[in-house]
Amino acid sequence: MGKIGIYGSSFDPITNVHLWTASTVAHRCKLDKVIFLPCSSKRRDKTMETADEHRIKMVNMAIEDNEKFSLDDYEMIQDGWEIYTYHTMNYFKKLFPEDSVYFIMGADLLVDIGRGMWTKGEELIAENRFIVMARNGIDMLSAISRSPILRNHDDGSTFHLLDKGLAMEISSTYIREEFAIGGEPRYLLPEKCYEYIKKNKLYQ
């Protein structure tokens, strides 16, 4: 039996911190594989700056040298009204029936689920396991204890709370803004992705 982490994000674009986070989680949580799951531009709760095809290509370029990393376009090919993390996790559990599958997320998303802001959030928590990364200003244990949705489904193994040990955050928004104003975010993202963005004039 293996351990697999599902790492969803817009990756618009993918950054070096995305890669460092995935590597840290894989090492600390003894994961055999981290699957990068780019969000679909058809989702009603997100607005993408870049076409799905560009984001897919950049993620593939960024992870191609790490045998533990792979990409899945499951959410990108779903109809927009059917894209919920609950369904996504069911898909991966059926895809890997012999393995333990974890959803990787930040503590900010844990708070949102606890507040009832996610569709099928309670079912998601009740039927899955999570690796939750610390975010500045969020007490993860307190967030769980304050939310009936979270605390009533926490059997001691539901949440693996992880502090990466270094509060390094590079937002994709910042990188997009830098490209837009002619800035130089070169070393904030993989070199291949930087060159791809310049070549295709993305975010300008």
Walkthrough of the structure:
- The chain has one domain (3-200): 3-Layer(aba) Sandwich (Rossmann fold), CATH 3.40.50.620.
- It is globular, with a radius of gyration of 17 Å.
- It has a six-stranded parallel sheet with strand order 3-2-1-4-5-6, sandwiched between helices.
- The chain is 40% helix and 16% strand.
- It has 204 residues and is an alpha/beta fold.
- The chain has helices at 16-28, 52-63, 85-95, 107-114, 121-127, 140-146, 148-151, 172-180, 191-200; strands at residues 3-9, 33-38, 69-71, 100-106, 129-133, 159-162.
- The model has no long low-confidence stretch (mean pLDDT 94).
The dominant shape is globular
State the helicity in percent bands.
Answer: 25-40%
The largest sheet, given as strand count, sense and whether it forms a barrel, is: 6 strands, parallel
Distance between the termini: 46 Å
| Count of beta strands | 6
Average pLDDT works out at 94
**SS summary, helix count:** 9
Which percent band covers the strand fraction? 15-25%
At the first level of CATH, the class is: Alpha Beta
Function: Catalyzes the reversible adenylation of nicotinate mononucleotide (NaMN) to nicotinic acid adenine dinucleotide (NaAD).
Pfam families: CTP_transf_like (PF01467)
Domain Cytidyltransferase-like: 6-177
Pathway: Cofactor biosynthesis; NAD(+) biosynthesis; deamido-NAD(+) from nicotinate D-ribonucleotide: step 1/1
